[in-house]
Specification:
Elements lengths: L2 H11 L10 E6 L6 E11 L5 E8 L11 E7 L4 E8 L2 E9 L4 E7 L8 E8 L2
Parallel strand pairs: 1-4
Antiparallel strand pairs: 2-3, 2-8, 4-5, 5-6, 6-7, 7-8
Length: 129
């Protein structure tokens, strides 16, 4: 349960990775300048969630999701890099906000809502390779 908020964060931020059809509902759009592999590190500042978790995600052709996870993402990344999304997994909702740069970095905040676990924290992103 503690992993869910951070997992959700990763999906939203870079908001994700293209994956098999059963992975996640794709309701996000990400401008093509953010295509590529990204490493997302989510850090918990408050609550019982994992202290720090790293995710490797892929954005391709403006679509985003997290492979192998049953999540729903609503939101996206603006052309200017503003990240605004809510990721849902079961009863857990994780609103995230922040920004990405076309040069390959980003940061922001996340918090859980609507679930049994309440956590909040920050995230950083870096384009891999």
């Amino acid at each position: 349960m503690a992993r869910t908020p951070l997992l959700i964060l990763a999906a939203a931020l870079t908001v994700g990775a293209l994956s098999p059809a059963n992975a996640a509902t794709k309701k996000v759009r990400v401008p093509n300048q953010y295509d590529g592999s990204w490493t997302i590190v989510a850090t918990t500042a408050a609550g019982p969630c994992s202290a720090s978790t790293s995710y490797h995600v892929q954005i391709k052709d403006s679509d985003a999701s997290l492979p192998g996870e049953d999540i729903d993402i609503d939101g996206g990344v603006s052309a200017g890099g503003a990240v605004q999304a809510t990721i849902t997994s079961g009863a857990n909702k994780v609103p995230i906000a922040g920004s990405l740069t076309a040069q390959g970095s980003g940061s922001g905040t996340w918090r859980t809502s609507g679930g049994l676990v309440e956590c909040s924290g920050s995230w950083t992103a870096k384009r891999a390779g």
